[in-house]
Amino acid sequence: MRVLKGIISIMIGILIISCQKEKTTITNSKDYAIYLKEQDNQTVKEAIKKLQFWNTKIKEDSLQITALAAAAGTYTELFQSTGDIQYLKLAEKTLTKSTSIAAIGKSSHLLTLAHNYISQHRFREAKEAAQGAYLLKTNTKATEMVLFDISMELGEYKNAEKYLGKIANYSDYNFLIRLAKWNDYKGNLDATIRNMEKARAIAESSKKESLLLWSYTNLADYYGHAGRIKESYDHYLKALAIDPSNAYAKKGIAWIVYSYEKDPVEALEILDAIAGNHQSPDYFLLKAEIAEFQKDDLTKKTNLKKYEGAVKNEQYGAMYNAHNALLLAEEYQKFKQALDIAEEEIQNRPTPQSYDLKAHILNLKGDHKEALAIVEKYILHKTYEPVANYHIAEIYKANNMQKAMDPIKEELLESGYELGPVTFGKILEL
Description:
Blueprint: H1 2-22, H2 29-36, H3 42-60, H4 65-82, H5 85-101, H6 106-119, H7 123-136, H8 140-154, H9 157-166, H10 173-185, H11 189-206, H12 209-225, H13 229-242, H14 247-260, H15 264-275, H16 282-293, H17 297-310, H18 321-330, H19 335-348, H20 352-365, H21 368-379, H22 386-398, H23 402-412, H24 416-419, H25 421-428
């Protein structure tokens, strides 16, 4: 019976792959080529001009709160536009100073600092800053929104639900995007998309570029999860029409080209174009995955080494902990080091995803029973992420739990786009 089920799964997988090959190509390089050309990043140029102005003001009067806050905002903008970690750290330094000396509007400075800490994956420090703002009782609604964000990152879902209830307002953009995130966590993708579409409508009415960019890129991601690839692609293009330098949208298109259309060469061209103006170590990891798909072991190793070189920068702190742990375990079998990082992640953010990281490493190490115990206590029915489900399936297989694994495998066969062709190939082998 098991052999028959295995044959059926393989046949289903082959059928899925065949259908994917027959699908119409939805991207067109003419749509996005203009955004890939090497050109001056206008956003960065304007931000640097603003920074020069505000830094002059700070030098004149180091206690000038307005200048400090504006400089911090510009540093953050530069980080988002360039990916250069030094700008995020400079924003933190400026915000720490403005927070310490602010007499009026202190809660706003604390909340901005909390956002900075979130970007650095320093979630407990973010919580401390946001709670400090909450005690001031001067910016309560905004503080509750940030506390929701932090609670989600920390896996404190009961607290997150409490804060979501406090800010409930179905005509408010900031509530709707958080409601979408909550529904995504609950595994209700239809509700997630529905609420993000409502948020998009509000953003389009406001015509605020920051809200439009957030709406378009997040909806593009959610549409991708739902298999609505054409809509995903269209929304990444909408984001680029507003901000031609938006690296996140370009990377999203590269993923469509690679994972959906199976065109690794074009995907790499897009990634190379992004890397010319935007620094981010995870580009090397994606390029390494694409090289594995191409069965180009040398290029894969070269990109992994480039990633390792990039994340040696201590300013990244814990931002790439999960990636680093996976690399150590999957590529180098350095399980002790990988588990140490996984434990650090659990301390920093005890989410189902952090426990999944540890369970996956333990399973690779051969500690199958221990991995299974973590799955049953901390992961199962607590996350709907395909990556976690794939790891659960692997752990079930290692523990000879074929009946438990089979329905997960069937579900994973529908997640090929989201997981990528390399992982999809491994799912077929389960």
